[in-house]
Structures are given as C-alpha cells and as structure tokens.
Amino acid sequence: MSDKITKPKTHRGKRMLAKREPKIIESSKKALMLRGATASLTSLQFVKDLHAIKRTHSTYFGQKHPFNPFEDVKPIEELTQKYDLSLFAFCSHNKKRPNNVILGRIFDHQLLDMIEFGVEQFKSLIEIKNSKVMEGTKPCLIFSGDVWHQNEEYSKCKSLLIDFFRGESVEQVRLAGFEHALSFTAADGKIFLRSYKILMTKSGTKTPHIELEEIGPSADLVIKRTKLASADLFKRACRTPSAAKPKKVKNMSKDVFGSKLGRIHMPRQDYRKLQVKRGRALRTEKTPKKSKISK
C-alpha cells in the first residue's frame, strides 16, 4: 500500500479522511475477524462467536487468507489501515499447532502486540441452548487468579483481552444494564473463558438477587506464542494527549471521600477594626469631653 497522501476529490472522501484523523477522545475500537487458509471448524467457530459478541464493533471476512501474522504481519497492517480497524483475530490450524486463534492490536497502522492461543474444550453459542443477550451489550469483565498480576506475559494478555472485549467507554452504568459477564480465570497454565447472562430477580430488598446462566462461548485457552510490544512503544501507545487531560483548577482539591474542598486567600486583617460584639470589660472607655462653660 502506498504511503502517498492525496487530497480527496469528493465529499465522501473528505468525510472518510476526517473519520480516520487522530482524535483527542478515540471512539470504541473495532476488530477485524479473519479466516486462515487452513482453519479448523473449532477455531473458525470460535472466531465467529467473537464476531457475534462484538457484532456492532467488528468486521468478518470469511474468505481464506493464505498468510500467518507471526510469519508476515504486513497483510494485517494493510487491511486494518484500509478499513480503519485497531484489533484483529485470525484463526488457523495445522498439525503442530491445532485449533489456533491469534488476537492482536494495531497502533499507528503498525503491529503493537499479538498472542496466539490454542482452543480446547470449546462450546459455541449454538451448542448452549439458552437465551442470549442483546447485540451491543457492554460486558462486565471478570479476571480471576493471581497470575494476572505476577506474570508479565499474562499482564499484557489481560490488557489485550480488556481492549478486545470492553466495548464502548461510558461514564455511568445503570444496574439493569449489567446483562453480560465474561469471566477469565487463569490457573494450571490455562485461561478458562466463560460467558454468562446476568439474571436479576426480586430479593425483598433494594439489591436484587443475582444468578448467572451460561450462554457461551466456553473455551480453555492455552498461550502458545507471543509477540509483545517494547516498553517504549507500549508507553507511546498508552500516552494521553495533553488536551484530553483534565485542567487543574486553582485552589481546588478533593479528599479521600471525593468531597470537593476549596481554599480562599484573604488579605491580612487588622483585628482591632473588626466589628464584633465585645464584653463591657474589653471596651475602650471614651474620654469625657470637656464642657464649655459660657462666661
């Protein structure tokens, strides 16, 4: 793909370039779902289920793509730049690495990081016969296990999974909006992915009774290969522009409880001139005026 920048000739072209321009507050990340040349039914259905979860923020290409991101990442970078996408999922299968799925991120039209997973004990959305959640529902992400904080590889994997599944960034969420929960449990060298529908029933109190119903997909993921970003590149990708940072207000602060505190600066006062009620003993006696005696 050529790096030559040409001016748009139509209004549609101008709108497309305006959408691709860097923004101070980025919109929700969209994913590209790709099928490899030798994808198995398991890996292909897993990617289709990911597309179903992220249907409003993903694009699925069902044709076969004869490349592997770990061998040549250039086609992925070109496709994500063409369709203005920042995440990708790629499924493949061979004798050495069966049922493979690669999840990755793109930054500045170049690969940031990617992780290859082996899919085991897979159950798709179709196999689990339960009522599903609505499309576009923002999931509640749950990470269980100490290894997420103890291992750098798992820590970067957690960051990748959050970027992939978090959906749109919102400031407030109502209680009834919690309908979908994605659980990632790291134990015994595997990541156990489970998807639940949150059911709220009456409990007799203000807080409802919560029940979880498995809806799929369900899979045991094993990390095979990784290609992580360098410390400098990852720091540059996580940098917040100065325009997006909240401006500091002078003489205003917050305590540990979130209460807003203000500081007022006043000039030095002369306490002798303050109009306060004083006791009789503290009052200064006025000197009696001399009366004028007329002669």
Automatic annotation (TrEMBL):
Keyword Zinc carried by entry: no
A biological process from GO: ribosomal large subunit assembly
Region (Disordered): 268-295
Protein keywords: Nucleus
Domain of life: Eukaryota
Residue span, Brix domain: 29-232
Annotated compartments: Nucleus, Nucleolus
An example Gene Ontology CC term for this record: nucleolus
GO molecular function, one term: rRNA binding
PROSITE patterns, per database record: BRIX
Classification via PANTHER family: BRIX DOMAIN CONTAINING PROTEIN, RIBOSOME PRODUCTION FACTOR 2 HOMOLOG
Family as reported in the entry's similarity comment: Belongs to the RPF2 family.
Identification of the protein by name: Ribosome production factor 2 homolog
Organism: Daphnia sinensis
